[in-house]
Amino acid sequence: MTARFHNPVDTRYGWGSLQALAAITENQKVALVTFPEARALGLVDRIQDLLGDRLVYVIEDVQPNPDVAQLRGTYERFWQEAGECHAVIAVGGGSAIDTAKALIVGTESGRFDELLALLASAKPFVPARSKLLIAAPTTAGTGSEVTPWATIWDAASHKKYSLHLDCTWPKVAIIDPQLMLTVPDSVTVSTGLDALSHALESVWNINANPISDTFAISAIADILECLPLLRRDLSNQELRSRMALAALKAGLAFSNTKTALAHSISYEMTLHYGLPHGIACSFTLPLVLGLAWGHDEARDRTLQRIFGNDLHKAQGQLREFLHSLDVKTEFADYGLTQKQAEEMIHFAMQGARGKNFIGSKAA
Hints:
This protein is an alpha/beta fold and about 375 residues long. It has helices at about 20-25, 45-50, 70-80, 95-105, 110-120, 185-205, 210-230, 235-255, 260-275, 275-280, 285-290, 295-305, 310-325, 340-350; strands at about 10-15, 30-35, 55-60, 85-90, 105, 130, 130-135, 150-155, 160-165, 170-175.
């Protein structure tokens, strides 16, 4: 078979690589998007020191799962007050980077509802204006720093919008494991499991190819070994670095395949049951592994390189791994009946991400 792999992001990895911000943003006006705890952690001052008077605007109230209720005001203030910025730096987890991706897509009117209407049409569009994005993740999991996708939530209406444009590819990704040293236990686990899901979802995917598999297989092996060790030793620099690199590899894998069934299920679990994304997209991994097995010889060979030839042992290994991290793996654990679970899986199969799953045509 022939394969194509495309990722336009200028990617910098390594301990202390945040220092590159100064050179990257030379002669530019810059806005910073980050999370509420960043200032107390010294991150805002550190970036201010690196950028000096280039940093002209700061947004530091990003909340988990960016919601239209908050984004509307943030977006419209940004374009009114920081429209002259050349670039936006997102420093944080997936929510900070997703928020920044929404902010850089400028509408003709400067109104957020115009952007929502364009997204709701589900048709490609070219934004009236846009900014460059630099992404520096503070968690090992999101992958958003090397992908163009962002999810915008509307909790009040139980809806989500998917943003994906040429301009939402970050121009530069800075993966500095030093930024991840202060991430607490629960976030380390949930973001690590998000990365594991990205890698596995890229394998049981109709868009998979040998190049994406290479990144995915390496990421999965590293996460299965490293995440439980890191959970017990959160200040370990080597383990933080390994997890940061594993999450980057997982991000590169699904940057070309997109995600699949586990993520399609996760959106419903987050919207309707409030489950955090990292848990919502990983608790079904043993189940989805079973649904994936046997549909495609090439995909089976890749899965067997990871887990061996016995499906039940493979599912057991994955289930035990999740249980060791205190993640429950049954729908019933989250309050769903068997019928509700079956209906949710069927619904998820029909979604855009569900259709990427190799077993979707047999469903």
